[in-house]
């Protein structure tokens, strides 16, 4: 697991939430509508909350937080799912785009394809791509790349990690590919970037 640069996220300790019971967990993985008015569940790794019946990919159990009502989940800084609309309101495209950017920021260190992202953000890949591009002006893939480059720069400047470690830490297991992408974004290889920064810092 990569070291988190910024641990802050929704649903942190100290906020109102309930422990997940086996019964609730079963309701979530079976998308059971009988539980829809009994609780809501939020997923810490995506920042999104749903009704139990939501037909989404089953989350990792340790990332699930349970709330008695939508207001509590909102207060814990989770955002309503586009698909199951747990607040009963349609999610505006702008808010969905914000939700997608948050999801990318929390998961850039994982393998993140358009399909995986669409799954996490509860929409079709086509719809996600179109909506994101229209609102943000860039594609989700470009946004992921920017995020990874920005994080890689932080690692290059603030740590002594090797280039291949940094590549893994920003979600790209293939080091040559990481170097190619980094150079495309910044005009320098990661090693050059680090070297140039160090020279500048030492007043040279
Ligand atoms: Zn949902």
UniProtKB/TrEMBL annotation:
<keyword id="KW-0805">Transcription regulation</keyword>
<dbReference type="InterPro" id="IPR016220">
    <property type="entry name" value="Me-P-triester_DNA_alkyl-Trfase"/>
</dbReference>
<dbReference type="GO" id="GO:0043565">
    <property type="term" value="F:sequence-specific DNA binding"/>
</dbReference>
<protein>
    <submittedName>
        <fullName>AraC family transcriptional regulator</fullName>
    </submittedName>
</protein>
<dbReference type="GO" id="GO:0008168">
    <property type="term" value="F:methyltransferase activity"/>
</dbReference>
<dbReference type="GO" id="GO:0032259">
    <property type="term" value="P:methylation"/>
</dbReference>
<keyword id="KW-0808">Transferase</keyword>
<dbReference type="InterPro" id="IPR004026">
    <property type="entry name" value="Ada_DNA_repair_Zn-bd"/>
</dbReference>
<feature type="domain" description="HTH araC/xylS-type">
    <location>
        <begin position="98"/>
        <end position="196"/>
    </location>
</feature>
<keyword id="KW-0862">Zinc</keyword>
<keyword id="KW-0479">Metal-binding</keyword>
<keyword id="KW-0234">DNA repair</keyword>
<dbReference type="InterPro" id="IPR020449">
    <property type="entry name" value="Tscrpt_reg_AraC-type_HTH"/>
</dbReference>
<keyword id="KW-0804">Transcription</keyword>
<dbReference type="GO" id="GO:0006307">
    <property type="term" value="P:DNA alkylation repair"/>
</dbReference>
<dbReference type="GO" id="GO:0003700">
    <property type="term" value="F:DNA-binding transcription factor activity"/>
</dbReference>
<keyword id="KW-0489">Methyltransferase</keyword>
<keyword id="KW-0010">Activator</keyword>
<dbReference type="InterPro" id="IPR035451">
    <property type="entry name" value="Ada-like_dom_sf"/>
</dbReference>
<dbReference type="InterPro" id="IPR009057">
    <property type="entry name" value="Homeodomain-like_sf"/>
</dbReference>
<keyword id="KW-0238">DNA-binding</keyword>
<dbReference type="Pfam" id="PF12833">
    <property type="entry name" value="HTH_18"/>
</dbReference>
<keyword id="KW-0227">DNA damage</keyword>
<dbReference type="Pfam" id="PF02805">
    <property type="entry name" value="Ada_Zn_binding"/>
</dbReference>
<dbReference type="GO" id="GO:0008270">
    <property type="term" value="F:zinc ion binding"/>
</dbReference>
<dbReference type="InterPro" id="IPR018060">
    <property type="entry name" value="HTH_AraC"/>
</dbReference>
């Amino acid at each position: 697991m990569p070291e988190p640069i910024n641990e802050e996220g929704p649903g942190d300790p100290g906020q109102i939430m309930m422990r997940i019971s086996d019964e609730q967990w079963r309701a979530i993985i079976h998308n059971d509508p009988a539980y829809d008015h009994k609780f809501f569940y939020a997923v810490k790794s995506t920042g999104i909350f749903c009704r139990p019946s939501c037909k989404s990919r089953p989350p990792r159990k340790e990332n699930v937080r349970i709330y008695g009502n939508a207001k509590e989940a909102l207060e814990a800084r989770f955002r309503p799912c586009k698909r199951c609309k747990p607040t009963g309101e349609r999610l505006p495209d702008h808010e969905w785009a914000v939700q997608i950017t948050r999801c990318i920021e929390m998961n850039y260190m994982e393998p993140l394809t358009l399909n995986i992202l669409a799954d996490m953000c509860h929409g079709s890949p086509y719809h996600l791509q179109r909506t994101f591009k229209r609102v943000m002006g860039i594609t989700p893939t470009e946004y992921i790349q920017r995020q990874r480059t920005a994080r890689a720069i932080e690692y290059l400047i603030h740590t002594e990690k090797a280039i291949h470690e940094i590549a893994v830490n920003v979600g790209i297991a293939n080091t040559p590919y990481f170097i190619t992408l980094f150079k495309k974004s910044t005009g320098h290889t990661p090693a050059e970037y680090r070297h140039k920064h160090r020279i500048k810092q030492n007043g040279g």
